[in-house]
Amino acid sequence: MTSDSSILDELYGVIASRRGTDPDKSYTAKLFARGRGKIAQKFGEEAVETVVAALSEGKDELVGESADTLYHLLVLWADCGVEPAKVWAELSRRAGTSGIDEKKSRAKK
Hints:
mainly alpha; 6 helices; 76% helix
């Protein structure tokens, strides 16, 4: 695997390939088998742990918790059928737009 941002696309592919495999042999397969509610719960737990690390722990802990959060987000996307490219495209669409203006445009919809 690579060590730049393309790792997320590679990891998504690995995660997606675990769907339907033996949950006794893969943590990812176990998450899929437990369902979207459990996947979302794990993502939420990791997000909270990331916040805690940012506020009261060191950089190494923040890096580790951030990796856990991204992994669980990718599992959630895979379970929901959301390809990373769709999210990258949305981020690209928003590039150069003020966050305030972007939020206002969503409120109008």
